[in-house]
Amino acid sequence: MIREPFVNGTSPLHRLDPRLRILTAVLFSFVVALAERFPALWTGLALGLFLTVLARLNPREVFRRLAVVWGFLLLLWLVLPFTIEGGPVLYRLGPLAATREGLLLAARITLKSNAILLGLMALIATMPLTTLGHALDRLRVPPKMVHLLLLTYRYIFVLEQEYQRLSRAARLRNFRPGTNLHTYRTYAYLVGMLFVRASARADRVYRAMRCRGFQGKFYCLQEFSIRRRDWVWSGFLTAGIAATAVLEWGGLWL
Amino acid sequence: MGGLVAVDNSSSPLIRLRGISFGYPGRKQVLDGLDFTLHRGDRVGLIGPNGSGKTTLFHVIMGLVRPTGGTVELFGRPAGTEKDFREVYRRIGFLFQDSDDQLFSPTVLEDVAFGPLNLGLSRADAVAVARKTLADLGLEGFEDRITHRLSGGEKRLVSLATVLAMEPEVLLLDEPSTGLDQETKETLTQVLNRFALSCIVISHEIEFMEGITDVVYQMENGRILTDYYVHAHPHSHPHTCHDHNEE
Lengths: 254, 247
Hints:
Chain A is mainly alpha-helical.
């Protein structure tokens, strides 16, 4: 269900302190998401690609993830040029008119989403989710949110197993999904049962926690330490992001 | 008996249940006037058909469910309120039937250290206790393993470590051998015998149970039949089916 194909690696990014990686990723995402000008957007994309190369991510896995987003983007390319008003009409398709503004917007969204996705893959997906949780805790993200994340991660596998068991049981009794009421009803039962089981599971987990003296406080044990190399790398990355920001807001171009 | 504070009469039984009743609405009583006493050093096994109330009995002892009748006395003091039981958690360790219920932390070390941290130990001390407990169970090197990626047998042993790390005086083991292979079962037997804590064990596997307890009682109709002992039969016996979801 959740595979973490980028976690194992020895690249400079893998060795970079997780907290700095998170901060860099947040900064990068915000700058790229807020940028509107094409020089900045192209720089963002280049930076994202550079990070992916730097992290030595498996290109096939990277491509597989990007392909998911491209599916949505294709939809935008089909719809946006005809729905955004303004600018000269580039071409007509029967009663539909494609505008320059619409095409530019689609292009911006494409550049932004790919750049951010690449950046997040290189910076965030390269750490195990547990490390991410602990690093967020150290960055003073509210403990409740951190533990929501960690407990979700812990039990999503258990819930998936329960889902597999239920759907296997249905398959073995010759259930073949189709477009009919019987199928919808079966899936509704399945999802309902999953909720019932999840709730019963939560109850048992809570009881087990109480039996070990749980009084509402969670603990994170992992410690991080920042070395000089971490500062150097994050300074370097921040400079790249700053360059993107200057291209957008520096007033040097256009 | 409960009036004296901080004095624990070590000659008083660890657990004394009198006339415990418990039932869910619209169903037959799960526990029906159950009497049971566990003295220090007792190692008791319980067998019984599905739905005979074995797991419910453990939940009553831990204060997870309130009995509708009867009294629970732990370490010589009556236990009824939430506060009474909070004190009890450190002294009674409860190994749940499903290890996935017990192991909720991302890593093994954190899970084992969770109990000691709740007892108020410092991080360094809790980690030290956790490491030592893992080593005692032959689980060195498991500290940074991700809990959900452990095998079934490893999960059970780590669960036991999370309980033992709190240094309990009594263990309640709910189907500890279910789903384990022979080798892991033997490891479990060895470990439990090495610690030799007072314990109550629920199991359908009577041979496994005889390896870690001194006496095995039958549970039936919401009571424990202490007037007759159960022995392992060389052949099959009628209680080999597994009961999940027994409440």
